[in-house]
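Tutorial, part two.
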Amino acid sequence: MSATPIAKRVRGFLPVVVDVETAGFDCQRNALLEIAAVVIAGESGELQPVQTLHYHIQPFAGSILDPQALAFNGIDPEHPLRGAISEAEALRDLFRQLRTQVRSQGCRRAVLVGHNANFDLSFIHAAAARENLKNSPFHPFSTLDTVTLAALALGETVLAKAVMRAGLEWDGKQAHSALYDAERTAALFCWIWNRFDRSTLSPFHPLAGATTPSRQE
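Running the prediction step on this input gives:
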């Protein structure tokens, strides 16, 4: 199977798998605590991770920290070893590195890939607005959602179940860390995408559109 540059494969978009950990479900009021991003590209004909970025983030001033959310993700925002930085510092570095990847891959902009992707995108948009950052590399509303892809390809919508059904590794003890979940989501995304591209259903497969001669009765 011949390689298709990522810029041509995804309409000029560079897939970036993102996972965020937060202090609640409200992107305007609850703090963004952790973000991980995995850049997806591929020159060999198959998509694969090419860069991973990870940030621990300090709660923004006046944010609400829901105890139930913190119990779920196991994050202690005040832990001295977190190495947390401000939203502004984290997003500036994330955006800068992603813009570099977008240019190097010949793409127009990044598209967020996520498991329930609109949740992750909403927290990035809200944080960028709070910090008055207007140069986000992400498409403002388009996403690629692995919930939909996993439902189609594997009959599962839960990340852990989809990953395991695909025969990939899953460690429940590491789950709900932005870095681990982003890496597992990236593995799932690439597995589904590459499996599709190896089939003749894909318009990028060399044999796509080939017809099988009908049998003479």
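The radius of gyration is 19 Å. In part three we will examine how such features are distributed along the chain.
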